[in-house]
Amino acid sequence: MQLSPPIAWEQVLSEFQRIWGYSGFRSPQDDIVKALLEQRDTLVIMPTGGGKSICFQLPALLQSGLTLVVSPLVALMENQVEELRQHDLPAATLHSQMLPHLRRNVLKRIEHQTLRLLYLSPETLLSPPVWDRISQPQIRINGLILDEAHCLVQWGETFRPAYRRLGAVRPALLANRPVGTSLPIAAFTATADPVAQKILRDVLQLQAPTVVRLNPHRANLHLSVRVALTVRDRKLTLKRYLQTHPNQPGLVYVRTRKDSEELADWLRQVGFRVAPYHAGLGPTERRQIEADWTADRLQFVVCTSAFGVGINKPNTRWVIHYQAPCLITEYVQEVGRAGRDGKPAEALTLVSEPTGWLDGSDRQRAQFFETQTQTLQQKAQQLIGKIPKEGDVREVSQQFKEGAIALSWLHSSGQLQWQDPFHYRLNPTGSAKSLPQQAAAQQMHQFLHSRSCRWKSLLDQFGFRTEAQKMGKCGHCDNCRRS
Length: 483
Description:
7-stranded parallel β-sheet
C-alpha cells in the first residue's frame, strides 16, 4: 500500500471531460486536484457554488482504493451519491436511515473493495460495523475528506462531538498498515477565519497542508443591516420586505426552534407559503421541506442554522436574518445561500438598537447562548472529577447524559487527548480556556453596528487584509451606499 504511481495530467483532464463534460478546470480546482493526487494534506476555503465536490471526487475515482467522505447531512450525502450513480460511478453512502439490507450491501462492497467513494457521517464512520471493516489491513483507504468542515469548529445546539475525534482516525488506521502507507486528509469549507483554520489544522493534525483560500467577496450580493426598534416593528419590517419581493425564493433565519415555529405560523396566517425548519424535526419532515422549497412549492423557509448545508438553490434572491447569528462565520455561511446564480441578491439583517432599551431581545438571546456555553463548560469541568483519567467515550456517554459533548469540550480546551477515536486520556497539565466563539460574538456585534464598508470588514476578519485595503468602497452594502 505504497503511494500510487503518478497519474498523467492529460489523463486527469480526459476523465474530467468524460465524466462531467468539462474541458478544463476553474481556478483553483486544478491546484486542489493536483494536491490530492499527490497525496498531500489539504485545507480548502472556497465559497459555496465554487465546484468543490468535483475537486475530491475526481481524484478518488482516478485511484484504486476507497476515499472516505465525512459529511454532516443525509440529504447532502444522498444528493452527491445520486449524481455520481447517474454517471455509473462506484459511490455509496451509509447512514442510520437506510434499510438494513441496503446497509449490509454497502458493507459487503467495502470488504470486496468495489467502491471508490463512501459518504458517511462522523458517527457512522466511528460505528462498530464500519470501523471494524475499514480498519482491516487489506482494505485500501486512499484518503479522508471532511466536507463542510466548519461543522467541526462551530459549537451550538447542532454540534456533534464525534467531529472532535476525527483527528485520531488517521493514526488509528495507519497503525494496522505497512510502514510508508499514505493516508492524506483534506478539509473543505466555505467559511473559516484564521482562528477556525488553526482549529481545523490542530484537530485534524494536518501535516504541512496545501492551503487554498478564495476571497469570500461576492459583488452580486448586497449586504444591509436595519434597526427594528420593537418586536412589533421587527415583524412588520419583515412583512413589508416580503410583500415587496413577491414569489422570490428566499430564507429567513432565526436562532431557536421555538422562534422558527412561531414566526412561520404567523407568516402562514398572513398568506405566505412558508414552513419552519430546525433540528427538532424528524428526518422525513426535514427532507420534505427541503424538496418543497427547492421546487418552489414553498416561497421560503423560517429556519435555524440547521438548514442550508449542501442544499443548492441558485436562484435564491434574498436571505433575511430575522435574528442575527452569533458568529461571523455563520453569517457568511448563511448569506452565501443567496445569489449563487450570479444575479443580484440581497442579505438583510434585523437588529435591535444598540442600547436594547426598547427591545432587549437581541441582548437576551446573546446572553442565553453565552449562558448555555458557560453551563456546558462547567459540566465538562465537573466531569473531570467523576471519570477515570483514561477511558472509553462510549462508556462515558452511557453513564453521563452529555458525556460525549463534555469530552469534546475538554479536548477543545487542551485538557484531554484522544489516544484513538474511542479512547481518551485526561491531560493533567491542561487548563480550562474559553472557546473562540466568546470573543467572536463581540466581533459580530461590532460588524452589525459598524458604519464601515461591510464587505471590507468581512474580508479583513477572514484574513484578506490586502484585498480589503485595495477595495475602497464596495458599492453594494448599505454603509457604502449611504455614504
